[in-house]
Amino acid sequence: MKFSLCVLIAVAASSADAFMAPKAPAVRTSLNVASLENTRVLKVPVLDEVCETTGVTLKRYMNEVAMLNPELTELTVLFGAIDTACKAITNMVKRSQLPSSETLGYQGEVNIQGEDQKKLDVITNEVLKRALRFTGKMGVLASEEEDVPLDLVNTEKDAIFADTGKYVAVFDPLDGSSNVDAGIPTGTIIGIYDHDENCAMDDESCEGDECAQQELNCLSNTLQAGTNLVAAAYCLYSSSTFFVLTLGAGTYGFTLDENLGEFVLSHPNMKIPETSSIMSFNEANTHMWDEPLQKVVKGWRDGTGKSGQQFSSRYIGSMVGDVHRTLLYGGVFGYPGDTKNVNGKLRLLYEGAPMSFIMEQAGGISTTGTKRVMEIQPEYVHQRVPIIMGSKNDIEEVMEAYAAAE
Ligand code: FDP
């Protein structure tokens, strides 16, 4: 009886006309509409039934995407690399607290943001960089752990490059790493943009400042608003390792089956509850927040807010874990601006924008209070942004409070 549940139904999305994709063994395919706000139109498989025993792996899912959207075939290579990197980081995080572990403790360096780098920060950064570089599909990389973006096309001569389909990756290799020694969940966050192919440097003919300017133009490829994201994903290293991604047509969650060594689709087409009664902030900062947010949170605490519900507080202090819980149970996660740090703490490029993309694609909202995070044009790589994201009704309550205060 259980065996019959393992027949998978893949529903793909198309802009206009219904189109039956080729039938693959044990997969039925029909169509539906989905589009990105940046006008990208995707056909994305929605796997409605998840096989209880073997399931749909991340590789299989990406192959379905490539079959339906041949122009995204190169993206499957990138996701293959990220899949491997997340598995490698899972093992490193698990072993990091053993006395014999080479990744225990601090590196003795401070990153550009003045934070003490842990050995794990450095090594996970290397793991991701290498995994992405050797796909041959990368143009520029920007990471929390790198002072400036890396122009792989023009400077990393030893990397393997294909001559088409370069992407830009922005990532935080180990978000929440300050908690790792206490066994608290950490995560990897990645955003993928298209690379501007016109930025290829002409070493032969450029001279001096001209070369520097060309390089600057290439590196500025990383400074794109979230609305340009082609894909975003996070890996959460916790009780299980979760891999959650969006390609702009829904949010999909996979769980690592360690026996198989594969990410298996466990949360197809995730939808955040529209309303909830959980809030997740560093509430020690409440007195420094903007007035409208203080008021809304007070209402949630005492049950006099819009929903009339008295909220509970849940804050791990590790963004990926807090956002993952918020996606599954609903609620609000935020790191707002305050009088000390007007732009809050989280980084726009490799934390705010990718996580907002994932949240929006699950039906949630992500705002600074007054602006959609996805629409903010970054001016520099390590720029911070105030963030309040989560269940639609609760975030609307926050935005209404800000609008009323204007
Ligand atoms: P961390 O410093 O441990 O890397 O991005 C930074 C971050 O963690 C987020 O993961 C987390 O949400 C936030 O900082 C926690 O900051 P506070 O300790 O100020 O609450």
Please characterize this protein's 3D structure.
- The protein has 9 helices and 18 strands.
- The chain has helices spanning 58-68, 73-95, 119-133, 152-155, 209-219, 291-302, 319-329, 348-361, 392-405, and strands spanning 8-13, 27-32, 46-47, 106-110, 116-118, 138-143, 150-151, 167-175, 186-194, 231-237, 241-246, 251-257, 262-267, 278-280, 312-313, 332-335, 365-367, 387-390.
- By secondary structure, the chain is α+β, with helices and mostly antiparallel strands.
- Strands 7-6-8-9-10-11-12-13 form an 8-stranded mixed β-sheet, with helices on both faces. A 5-stranded mixed β-sheet has the order 15-14-16-18-17, sandwiched between helices. A 3-stranded mixed β-sheet has the order 2-1-3, with helices on one face.
- It is globular.
- It is 28% helix and 22% strand.
- The chain has 3 domains: 8-47, no CATH class; 58-267, 2-Layer Sandwich (Fructose-1,6-Bisphosphatase, Chain A, domain 1), CATH 3.30.540; 278-405, D-Maltodextrin-Binding Protein, domain 2 (3-Layer(aba) Sandwich), CATH 3.40.190.
- Residues 175-179, 282, 317-319, 335, 345-346, 351 line the site of 2,6-di-O-phosphono-beta-D-fructofuranose.
- This is fructose-bisphosphatase.
- Its EC number is 3.1.3.11.
- Keywords: Carbohydrate metabolism, Hydrolase, Magnesium, Metal-binding, Signal.
- Belongs to the FBPase class 1 family.
- It catalyses: beta-D-fructose 1,6-bisphosphate + H2O = beta-D-fructose 6-phosphate + phosphate.
